[in-house]
Design goal:
The chain is an alpha+beta fold. It is 37% helix and 16% strand. It has 6 helices and 4 strands; from the N terminus they run H-H-E-H-H-E-H-E-H-E.
């Protein structure tokens, strides 16, 4: 599959098979994700691998689709609001790289935003001034949803003189 096909066929997966993900594969996708663009190569991302006790405390409505692996992606704090925005953007690029690397290997990801809620930040032990980019369920999909229509990109372009 070429990169355009990988991008266009990646979906948020809701239900996973009970097939384990090897730690070596997971680490290889995270390593690939670490090549995301980031200002001054500060690599502002941190990863929390979530075990069964913490996962139960998060009490996600579908338990992340029963994904065999759950992790949280954090963005480190920064001294200024501008640098914080740069960190969050870089960590989001990290997330996208991870999603695409996993998808290329036939693995799906459920991206949930629940980690940003105050009580879930506490459950995850997220330090003050860190941003939670997402909590991700990772596994082999039971099914891959079809693509939903997108707005034609030409309608999103403004030409400046």
């Amino acid at each position: 599959m070429n990169i355009i096909d990988i991008i266009k066929t990646r979906r948020n997966i809701k239900v996973f098979k009970q097939v384990p993900i090897s730690e070596a594969e997971l680490i290889s996708w995270l390593e690939a994700a670490s090549y995301a663009p980031n200002h001054r190569l500060n690599e502002p991302w941190e990863i929390l691998l979530i075990g069964p006790d913490t996962r139960a405390k998060l009490n996600h409505k579908t338990d992340f689709g029963n994904a065999p692996v759950v992790l949280a992606l954090l963005s480190k704090p920064a001294p200024t609001p501008f640098e914080r925005d740069e960190n969050v953007t870089a960590a989001s690029c990290f997330a996208q790289n991870f999603l695409l690397a996993a998808h290329e290997a036939g693995v799906g990801v459920y991206w949930a935003s629940l980690g940003a809620l105050p009580h879930n930040r506490e459950i995850l032990g997220v330090q003050q001034n860190y941003d939670v980019i997402g909590v991700f369920g990772i596994g082999y999909p039971v099914e891959v949803p079809t693509a939903k229509p997108r707005t034609p990109i030409i309608s999103k372009i403004t030409y400046l003189s």
